[in-house]
Amino acid sequence: MTRRGRLAEAGHQARLPSSEPRPHSGPVRTCVGCRAPGSRSALLRVVVVQDLLVVDVARSMPGRGAWLHPDPGCLELATRRRAFGRALRHAGPFDTAVIAEHLESQMHHDAG
Ligand SMILES: [Zn+2]
């Protein structure tokens, strides 16, 4: 049982080119869950509003933001590592229910 194997199953960071330049890929952020880099447009921006984690859909809310793949596995990893607390400079604990719901609705949307 390796973490590497588990991450490979998620698949979304498996196709990163190792050496090719990507001139127009835009700003790169790091997912607070799996710690893999991703383009700003591919990651969700998560902010804290009164101890509640919410998705900053427009990526324009003020204050600190944490970046997360739209993947329940990444949400779980981030929660277990208390990565949101570090990224958002907030002691927590946080309620991640809103984020989880958002991910679920996105998945259903994509599937349909
Ligand atoms: Zn991730």
UniProtKB/TrEMBL annotation:
Pfam families in alphabetical order: YlxR
Residue span(s) of domain YlxR: 29-97
Region described as Disordered: spans on this chain: 1-31
InterPro entries (UniProt xref): YlxR (IPR037465), YlxR-like_sf (IPR035931), YlxR_dom (IPR007393)
Domain of life: Bacteria
Entry's transmembrane regions: none
PANTHER family tied to this protein: BLL0784 PROTEIN, YLXR DOMAIN-CONTAINING PROTEIN
Protein name from the UniProt record: YlxR family protein
Species annotation: Cellulomonas rhizosphaerae
Taxon lineage: Bacteria, Bacillati, Actinomycetota, Actinomycetes, Micrococcales
